[in-house]
Target: NUDIX hydrolase 15, mitochondrial
Amino acid sequence: MSASTNNLSNISLAVLAQQLRLYKPTPGLDDDDNIDDSPKKQSLKIAAVLICLFQGDNNDGLRVILTKRSSTLSSHSGEVSLPGGKMDEGDVDDADTATREAKEEIGLDPSLVNVVTILEPFVSKHLLRVVPVIGILSDRNLFNPVPNVGEVDDVFDAPLEMFLKDENRKSEEIEWMGSRILMHSFDYETGGKKYLIWGLTAGILIRAASVVYQRSPDFLEQSPKIKLPGILSKVDKLL
Model:
């Protein structure tokens, strides 16, 4: 698969979809070497988020749909996030979870989204296993955002390539689960509103942009090396 920064804006979304379907997640998170059987970590839950990409106006590059969480929520209130949430018992797979949650949160009809690939899972600070699902929205005009007022304050979009650039980016080194990692954040302004995209959401978007544009970011990424609960090796076979 090759979709370089120089030519990506010139290829059709159909070709991009075909290229992304060839992507194979990098082994690591769910390998046997990364299994931690400690009982206290057996309760890790599963979630999925939707990285919904579309072509910007005048072929100005790929853009990704983001939300600002409701300020009334008990956790992560007011933060920027990707549409998504925890897996329900009736969900068929990660893609089903991500698209269902996107419909519930922002009114995005799953039939408009062409799911093309699944990325490596991330683990949140609350030990939630989060699977990024990349989908393509062929016609942005068919999507009229209808935010769920109980969950979402705002819906906006940002250029995907922004998450590979050093502009408007800051980082802070923190310790998490025994590793020293860089916590990245990006300042973004659109429609007269300012947003801070940071933490897990920023990390997922950096990874997604790296996969789509087939290049490393212009800065040190420094992702953590972690061990996942043994239960994940059993759950993954069911998805």
